[in-house]
Amino acid sequence: MLERISIELTNRCGKGCRFCYNKSHAAGPTMWTVDEIVTFASDCSRNGVQAVPLGGGEPLEFDGIFALLSALDGVIFRSMTTNGLMLEGETVKRLVTVRPDKVHISIHSPHSRSEVERVIRQVRMLGALNIRGGINLLIARSKLGAARAAAATIRAAGIGTDQIVYLPMRGRDTPSPAEVAGVAAREPFQSMSCLAACAASPRFCSIAWDRSVAWCSYTSSRRMLAELSFRGLREALCGLPLTFCGASDPETTRNGA
To answer: Taking a C-beta distance cutoff of 8 angstroms, is the pair 26, 59 a contact?
Structure first.
């Protein structure tokens, strides 16, 4: 039974990381309206979906982000993943007024001391404002040493394992599960459910900025959402395969139905 539905609000992101699985960029398009997402998420909630993680692109570059978070308050668990570059000043004040249930800030460059320190500072700031914060730490095989050092710095700052998600780079430069565990100091940690093997989770699906549906955010196997409803979502997922996001190999294609 579906419990979480990730929705990419926009493909716009001023950071424009070269490794972005979504190929987001500063002029990236937006197809959703606030009313469409509210209607869709509310219908999904009535059918048992418990949480809607909001991403992008950069969700803070979606023009209706604050209206959306306000409208979904009390309807469904609202989390958001951001690069944190806009998380200051008036944006923070507006975020406090709509108070999302959780905000995760991504560290894309663990080798950048300034980025690591900024994100730690922002997570602490959110906590002081009574907003639950966390960190998504991106791990590339070529920079395992930097990832281990960044993770140690984060933990030393008092940010616990319940607030850290260790995300392996996908597509290329991908670390092994053992290498990710090493970054997490070989203690229990949070990561993707597919860390050990490519497989669909019956509890999760992803909807991209263009309204294409997939069993995860990284797979190329997608189907357009024909109807903005829970029924439309189930129809889009029915029989939809899951294609491994790494090297091309027939053995890595699995049926996600």
So the answer is: no
CA distance 60 to 82: 7
Average pLDDT over residues 127-147: 97
pLDDT at site 252:
35
The upper half-sphere exposure of residue 192, i.e. CA atoms within 13 Å in the direction of its Cβ, equals 24
Distances (CA, A) of 36 to 64, 155, 228: 11, 39, 7
Domain assignments of the chain as residue spans, ordered by start: 4-100+192-254
- Architecture label for domain 4-100+192-254: 2-Layer Sandwich (3.30)
In angstroms, rounded to a whole number, what is the distance separating the alpha carbons of residues 79 and 104? 8
pTM for the model stands at 0.92
Cis peptide bond prior to 57, omega within 30° of 0: yes
Q: Could you list the beta-strand ranges (E) of the chain.
A: 4-8, 51-55, 77-82, 102-107, 133-139, 164-168, 204-207, 212-214, 223-224, 242-243, 253-254
Residue 128 gets which letter from DSSP? H
